[in-house]
Amino acid sequence: MKIIIEREKCQGHGRCAALAEGVYSLDEEGYIETQSGDVPPDREREAYEGARGCPERVIVIEKNLMNEDPPDVLPMVSASCDPYDGAALGQTPPTGSDEMD
Ligand code: SF4
Q1: Pick from 23, 19, 57: which is nearest to 37 by CA?
Q2: How many CA atoms within 13 Å lie on the side-chain side of 40?
Q3: Which end of the chain is more exposed for a tag (fewer CB within 10 A), N or C?
């Protein structure tokens, strides 16, 4: 498993390191300093938990699903990725009665 750190998105919340101090570390200003790279198998669960805790989605998990078992904990998907999640935009989801004739 590999982690990709999109450091430019980091806002310094520190949740990644609080949840997974064995994987993620912060610099003196509180921003993530961990570099992208491979995660040892015994640290994968911790790496997922830290990634899930990041509200800015700075940490991307890259996993070769063809060769590995699925993790116990899956990363959350941002609600903004769901085109039918109108609540985030103040809209209601489309219904069948909205179709044009
Ligand atoms: S939780 Fe996310 S935003 Fe906060 S320090 Fe860690 S990587 Fe940066």
Answers
A1: 23
A2: 5
A3: C
Q: Fill in the DSSP letter of residue 24.
A: -
Q: What is the pLDDT of residue 90?
A: 58
47 C-beta closer than 6 A to ligand 1: no
pLDDT value at residue 42 = 96
30 φψ region: left (φ > 0), alpha (ψ -120 to 50), beta (else): left
Task: State if residue 23 touches ligand 1 by the CB under 6 angstroms criterion.
Answer: no
Q: Regarding predicted confidence, which is higher, 41 or 66?
A: 41
Class of domain 2-88: alpha beta
Per-residue pLDDT, averaged over 79-93, amounts to 51
